[in-house]
Amino acid sequence: MTVPELAIKRPVTTLMTLISIVVLGLVALGRVPLAYFGVCMTMTEESEEKRREAETFLQPVRDLVQPAEEAMFAGAVNYQKLPFVLRFLMKNMIKSPEGDFRDWETIRGWAGGLPARLLQA
Questions:
Q1: What pLDDT shows up at residue 31?
Q2: Number of other CB atoms surrounding residue 42 within 10 Å
Q3: CA geometry: angle 52, 112, 101, nearest 5 deg
Q4: Which residues have CB under 8 Å from 19's CB, separation 6+?
Q5: What's the CA gap between 74 and 11, in Å, rounded?
Q6: Among candidates 39, 37, 45, which has minimal Cα distance to 95?
Q7: How many CB atoms lie within 10 A of CB 59?
Q8: Closest among 71, 68, 70 to 119, alpha carbons compared
Protein backbone atom coordinates (compact mmCIF):
# COMPACT_ATOMS: atom_id res chain seq x y z
CA MET A 1 0.00 0.00 0.00
CA THR A 2 1.42 3.41 -0.97
CA VAL A 3 1.38 6.43 1.35
CA PRO A 4 -1.46 8.19 -0.55
CA GLU A 5 -3.54 4.98 -0.44
CA LEU A 6 -2.86 4.62 3.28
CA ALA A 7 -3.87 8.25 3.88
CA ILE A 8 -7.19 7.69 2.10
CA LYS A 9 -7.99 4.23 3.48
CA ARG A 10 -6.78 4.84 7.04
CA PRO A 11 -7.08 8.58 7.80
CA VAL A 12 -7.00 8.14 11.60
CA THR A 13 -3.80 6.08 11.42
CA THR A 14 -2.26 8.68 9.14
CA LEU A 15 -3.26 11.53 11.46
CA MET A 16 -1.93 9.76 14.56
CA THR A 17 1.36 9.00 12.80
CA LEU A 18 1.70 12.64 11.78
CA ILE A 19 0.94 13.86 15.32
CA SER A 20 3.48 11.39 16.74
CA ILE A 21 6.18 12.66 14.39
CA VAL A 22 5.43 16.31 15.29
CA VAL A 23 5.48 15.58 19.04
CA LEU A 24 8.72 13.62 18.71
CA GLY A 25 10.25 16.51 16.76
CA LEU A 26 9.21 19.06 19.39
CA VAL A 27 10.65 16.94 22.21
CA ALA A 28 13.92 16.49 20.29
CA LEU A 29 14.08 20.20 19.48
CA GLY A 30 14.08 21.01 23.17
CA ARG A 31 16.86 18.52 23.93
CA VAL A 32 19.28 18.89 21.04
CA PRO A 33 21.70 21.82 21.33
CA LEU A 34 21.28 24.22 18.43
CA ALA A 35 23.45 26.92 16.94
CA TYR A 36 22.11 29.87 14.95
CA PHE A 37 23.97 32.20 12.68
CA GLY A 38 22.82 35.19 10.75
CA VAL A 39 24.27 36.79 7.65
CA CYS A 40 23.34 40.40 7.00
CA MET A 41 24.68 43.62 5.57
CA THR A 42 24.20 45.34 8.93
CA MET A 43 27.35 43.57 10.09
CA THR A 44 29.51 45.24 7.42
CA GLU A 45 30.13 47.97 9.97
CA GLU A 46 31.79 46.69 13.15
CA SER A 47 30.23 48.54 16.07
CA GLU A 48 28.39 47.52 19.21
CA GLU A 49 25.25 49.34 18.02
CA LYS A 50 25.20 47.48 14.68
CA ARG A 51 25.88 44.15 16.44
CA ARG A 52 22.91 44.70 18.78
CA GLU A 53 20.71 45.65 15.82
CA ALA A 54 21.74 42.55 13.87
CA GLU A 55 21.16 40.29 16.89
CA THR A 56 17.53 41.45 17.01
CA PHE A 57 17.01 39.77 13.62
CA LEU A 58 17.33 36.35 15.29
CA GLN A 59 14.95 37.19 18.14
CA PRO A 60 11.84 35.54 16.59
CA VAL A 61 13.77 32.27 16.26
CA ARG A 62 15.32 32.70 19.71
CA ASP A 63 11.83 33.08 21.17
CA LEU A 64 10.97 29.58 19.94
CA VAL A 65 14.15 27.74 20.94
CA GLN A 66 17.10 29.15 22.88
CA PRO A 67 20.35 28.37 21.05
CA ALA A 68 23.46 27.01 22.73
CA GLU A 69 25.53 29.23 20.44
CA GLU A 70 24.89 32.02 17.95
CA ALA A 71 26.89 34.33 15.71
CA MET A 72 26.33 37.13 13.22
CA PHE A 73 28.42 37.63 10.08
CA ALA A 74 28.62 40.24 7.34
CA GLY A 75 27.21 39.16 4.00
CA ALA A 76 27.63 39.94 0.32
CA VAL A 77 25.53 41.85 -2.20
CA ASN A 78 26.00 41.91 -5.97
CA TYR A 79 23.57 44.46 -7.40
CA GLN A 80 23.87 42.96 -10.89
CA LYS A 81 22.30 39.70 -9.68
CA LEU A 82 19.29 41.37 -8.04
CA PRO A 83 15.93 41.99 -9.75
CA PHE A 84 15.38 45.63 -10.68
CA VAL A 85 12.96 46.46 -7.85
CA LEU A 86 15.16 44.90 -5.17
CA ARG A 87 18.27 46.55 -6.62
CA PHE A 88 16.50 49.94 -6.56
CA LEU A 89 15.46 49.44 -2.93
CA MET A 90 18.89 48.27 -1.80
CA LYS A 91 20.70 51.14 -3.53
CA ASN A 92 18.36 54.05 -2.92
CA MET A 93 16.27 53.34 0.15
CA ILE A 94 18.25 50.90 2.29
CA LYS A 95 21.59 52.25 1.01
CA SER A 96 23.24 48.89 1.42
CA PRO A 97 26.88 48.77 0.32
CA GLU A 98 27.71 46.54 -2.62
CA GLY A 99 30.46 43.97 -2.28
CA ASP A 100 31.55 40.83 -0.49
CA PHE A 101 32.09 41.58 3.21
CA ARG A 102 32.29 37.98 4.40
CA ASP A 103 35.28 37.19 6.61
CA TRP A 104 35.79 33.54 5.76
CA GLU A 105 38.50 33.02 8.38
CA THR A 106 36.15 34.15 11.15
CA ILE A 107 33.29 32.06 9.75
CA ARG A 108 35.48 28.95 9.44
CA GLY A 109 36.86 29.50 12.94
CA TRP A 110 33.37 29.72 14.44
CA ALA A 111 32.06 26.76 12.45
CA GLY A 112 35.16 24.64 13.09
CA GLY A 113 34.87 24.85 16.86
CA LEU A 114 31.11 24.47 16.87
CA PRO A 115 30.82 20.66 17.24
CA ALA A 116 32.91 20.62 20.41
CA ARG A 117 30.99 23.55 21.92
CA LEU A 118 27.62 21.94 21.11
CA LEU A 119 28.69 18.66 22.70
CA GLN A 120 29.52 20.55 25.91
CA ALA A 121 26.15 22.33 25.95
A1: 86
A2: 21
A3: 50
A4: none
A5: 48
A6: 45
A7: 8
A8: 68
